[in-house]
Design goal:
InterPro entries: AAA+_ATPase (IPR003593), ABC_transporter-like_ATP-bd (IPR003439), ABC_transporter-like_CS (IPR017871), P-loop_NTPase (IPR027417). With 307 residues, the protein is of the alpha/beta class. It has eleven helices and 13 strands. Bound molecules: adenosine-5'-triphosphate.
Length: 307
C-alpha cells in the first residue's frame, strides 16, 4: 500500500508539488499522469525517500521508505534508467544489486530471462545498451528483491511497441498476484490499457483522480454544430456547461437527450451528438500537454477530481 498525504515540495521559490494526496492499493496498477514538469518525479522521489517533503508525507506499508528495513526487498524502484553504471555489464549490475539486497545469485539469471536480457545482452556493458535495454535492466533490478510494491518513473521510455506491450503484461501480472504498482507517464494512452486507477497532476496539483473506468467513461456528451457560439448559448440557457471537445466539437456536461433538446429549443441544428466516453479525459490531457498549454492547470473546472 502506498499513501501520499498532503505532500508539498518547494525548491526555493519553486513549488514543485502542492498538497498532493492519493493512495495505491495492493492488487492494482496506478497510472500517475501529467505533462512535463507537472511534479510526477518529485512525488515518486518522495515516495522512495529520495526527496524530503516540505510538508505532508509519503509512506509505503504505513512507514516512510527510509524507515523500511531492507527497503529494496519491499519496494522495487526504477526512477532513472540512465543512472546505471555504464562500465558494468547487465549481469554484473544485477549481481551487485543482489549482493547488496541479500538475494540469492540464482535470481539474477531469472530476472535477466524475465526482462529479455539473458544470453549475449547480459554480458554487454550497460554503456552499450539502448535506452530500451536500460529500462529492461532497470525493471529487472526493481524486481530482483521480489518486492510487493513497484515505483516506476516513465518505465516505457525507449521501449518499442512490442516492449511496451510486454511491460504492460508484466506489470498486470505483478498486480494480479497482489502487488502494488505506481507508474508515471506523460502519455495517457500508454497507461490506460494497464492502469486500474489514474491520478492526473498538472502544475504540481492533482487535477483528476479515480478509477480508469470512471475517468475514461466519464459522463458528458460530444456535441457539434456549425455555430458553436449559438450552441454554447442554447446549452447555457438550459443550465448545461461545456468545455472544448475534439476538433471543433464541445463536450457538454449532461446526457445526450438533454443536450439534444436544449439545442433544438435554441434552434441550433446539430452535426454530431454522442456520449463522450473517454474524450473528456483525453481533452483534459490535450489541454495540459498540447502546444497551447501554459503549464497552468486548465482542468480544475472540469471537476474530475474525486476524493
Ligand atoms: N532539484 C530541483 N530543484 C529545483 N526545481 C526542481 C527540482 N526538481 C524538480 N524541480 C521543478 O519542480 C517541478 C516539477 O518537476 P518534476 O521533475 O517533478 O516534474 P515531472 O512531472 O516529473 O516532469 P517530467 O515529465 O518532465 O519528468 C518542475 O518545475 C521542475 O523544474
Amino acid at each position: 500500500m502506498i499513501n501520499v498525504e498532503h505532500l508539498t515540495k518547494r525548491y526555493g521559490a519553486q513549488l514543485a508539488v502542492s498538497d498532493v494526496s492519493f493512495s495505491c492499493a495492493p492488487g492494482t496498477v496506478t497510472g500517475f499522469l501529467g505533462p512535463n514538469g507537472a511534479g510526477k518525479s518529485t512525488t515518486l522521489r518522495a515516495v522512495c525517500g529520495l526527496t524530503l517533503p516540505t510538508s505532508g508525507m509519503a509512506t509505503v506499508g504505513g512507514r516512510p521508505y527510509r524507515e523500511l528495513p531492507n527497503a529494496g526487498r519491499r519496494v522495487g524502484v526504477l526512477l532513472d534508467a540512465g543512472a546505471q553504471h555504464s562500465g558494468r555489464t547487465g549481469k554484473e549490475t544485477l549481481a551487485l544489486a543482489a549482493l547488496v539486497m541479500g538475494v540469492p545469485g540464482t535470481r539474477v539469471d531469472e530476472m535477466l530471462e524475465l526482462v529479455g536480457l539473458a544470453g549475449k545482452p547480459a554480458g554487454k556493458r550497460v554503456g552499450k545498451y539502448s535506452l530500451g535495454m536500460r529500462q529492461r535492466l532497470g525493471l529487472a533490478t526493481a524486481l530482483l528483491g521480489d518486492p510487493e510494491v513497484l515505483v516506476l518513473d516513465e518505465p516505457a521510455n525507449g521501449l518499442d511497441p512490442d516492449g511496451i506491450f510486454w511491460m504492460r503484461g508484466l506489470l498486470r501480472g505483478f498486480a494480479d498476484r497482489g502487488g502494488t504498482v505506481l507508474l508515471s507517464s506523460h502519455l495517457l494512452r500508454e497507461v490506460e490499457a494497464v492502469a486500474d486507477q489514474l491520478v492526473v497532476i498538472a502544475g504540481g496539483r492533482i487535477v483528476a483522480q479515480g478509477s480508469s473506468e470512471q475517468l475514461l467513461a466519464s459522463t458528458g456528451t460530444v456535441v457539434r454544430a456549425r455555430d458553436r457560439e449559438a450552441l454554447t448559448g442554447a446549452l447555457a440557457a438550459a443550465g448545461i456547461g461545456v468545455v472544448a471537445g475534439p476538433a471543433d466539437a464541445l463536450i457538454a456536461d449532461g446526457p445526450a437527450e438533454a443536450v439534444g433538446i436544449a439545442a433544438a429549443t435554441g434552434g441550433v441544428p446539430l452535426l454530431e451528438l454522442r456520449p463522450a466516453g473517454g474524450d473528456r479525459l483525453e481533452e483534459l490531457f490535450r489541454s495540459l500537454t498540447g502546444p497551447s498549454a501554459g503549464g497552468a492547470p486548465a482542468a480544475p473546472q472540469m471537476q474530475e477530481t474525486r476524493a
